[in-house]
Request: fold
Amino acid sequence: MTSPRSPFRVLLVDDEPVIRALVPAMLEGEGVEVRCVVNGAQALAEARRFRPDLILLDIVLPGLDGISACRLLKSDPELGEVPVHMLSSRARNAEHVAARKAGANGFIEKPFKAQHLQALVASLRAP
Reply:
């Protein structure tokens, strides 16, 4: 759910250091605050603390995978309305189906362009 506060908050959940460096660089100049964690368990805890407006969640994660984390986030009464967009470098239809069944709002294929993420944030910020 979009909040009227500024900046727009994004929680990035990805175990790849390159992605954790690139996404903040792509978005933070856009009035966006990005927090990064590396696994599904950290995602649940940080989402409760940070109260993001958007969660970007990798599918393949150590420990609690992205699909399971998405399911838990969407079932949480305080976090269930937060849009979750799954990230993956694998373009498998089965992953898309599993992500949707878990409650994901969208799917972003790696590699992605800064403009794609900026457009997603802009669409969620729109009144």
